[in-house]
Amino acid sequence: MKLERTRRVTLSGMPGSVRLLLVGSNSAVRRGLELLLSGEAGVQIVGQAENANSAIRLGRELSPSTVLIDLESLGDRGLEEAVELRRQIPATVIVLSLRDDQQSRQRADEAGLRFLSKQAGTDGLLALLCERLVG
Hints:
Layout: E1 18-23, H1 27-38, E2 43-49, H2 52-62, E3 66-70, H3 78-88, E4 92-97, H4 102-110, E5 114-117, H5 121-134
Parallel strand pairs: 1-2, 1-3, 3-4, 4-5
Helix pairs in contact: 2-3
């Protein structure tokens, strides 16, 4: 994910807030996302998990409105684990992926997940979170 300092998209002035659970095995990626989003108005990071099982447990405790998953860090079963997470927690699940192809997007969409390519950068992520707030 491009860690950009200049942003065109902001959640400032949006109604409500996003209660966000970050999921991925790479603690540096989770920390980077936390640093990137923690100063953003309208975003509350409620927790972090290394894997889907931990995310399900934390999701039940913390009631996030949105779960952001670093898909590749969960290994070969990343998409299946994201689907299971969505079944277990009543939250919007966004899968963040290195892949940016139609097949990956379609598989995520068919599974009821939101898809975001890491190439979308900060603005892409904030735009998707704005959509979450609006409707």
